[in-house]
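Illustration 12: RNA helicase.
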Amino acid sequence: MANLPIVQFEKKILETVEQNPVVVIIGETGSGKSTQLSQMLHRKGYTDSGIVAVTQPRRVAAVSVSRRVAQELGVKLGEEDDIEKLVSKLEDKVRSLAEGSCMDAIILPLHGSLPPEMQVRVFNPPPPNCRRFIVATNIAETSLTVDGVVYVIDSGYVKQRQYNPATGMYSLDVVQISK
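Figure caption equivalent — predicted structure in token form:
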């Protein structure tokens, strides 16, 4: 966590957010509003059941803030996401099962920002007596055949880049799949 002025107010900010449906925080440039508030809310658990969005009026600022937060959290920019969260939840669930209640499982992510050497792991057959779970974006939708797949579970949603004429900006939105 960075040592920025806003950090000293974390407890008060979180208390205020819990007690109010809308909170406006004002602080000087460089105080940590953009990079620290989202992390405070994440640590408090707000991202367990929803998302925390940080808006920036300029693309350069938005990219800069994203890089800074990813660096501070120790994750690769753009990987934290939804796929990694689901992989983590599945791994926790498999670990929590009673011994002998099911066979071993290997859980593999598959998305476009994953390095190629990690992507090819989904094509390797699982070890004996081991079930393979592949958590994928729509990268696996076309031109890709993974041998041994028995079931496909589709959420019915996709992240899609969309233009908003009101703001004049593009955004990556989760929308229902059309077919």
